[in-house]
Write the structure tokens for this entry.
Amino acid sequence: MVLYRRQRIPGGTYFFTLTLSDRSQRLLTEHIQSLRQAYASVRKRHPFQTDAIVILPDHLHCLWTLPDDDAAYSMRWRLIKTQFTAALIAGGVGAGRRRRNERTIWQPRFWEHAIRDETDLSRHIDYIHFNPVKHGLADRVSDWPYSSFHRFCRDGNLPKDWAGDFESCRKKGE
């Protein structure tokens, strides 16, 4: 049996990546309301701060800061994944089962990284916000609707044209 070592820092800030089992599906954006409801429900019962987030069709990236006395991010993700999966099944989306009776909507685990300093935090925020452009889902970061980028703009932390226009950059390189 593989032993997974996760760094657990109460009150820590973490970068996460969660992925669907079938990367060809678009369940996260097609069922964004169910995902938002599961996320909000868990956050209400087990508080955390969402520092940055982007939802793509088949995976998501986010940064969380946990309460000072708490490092239980795995439990939070388990609850979010379980509630989202239950909502999909209730809505008629088929989901097979793995060993131990787990549903097959999500990959079994997730990637996490403990943020070390302000530079690490800034790089991960940029990575999160640029991800839809990287995956060819948008030409500009501002075009992707499922991103905390819009909150960063409203709060005056980033300009609306941050990272430029990928399409015009591509044309210049041709």
The mean pLDDT is 90. Residues 13-173 form a domain with the Alpha-Beta Plaits fold (CATH 3.30.70.1290).
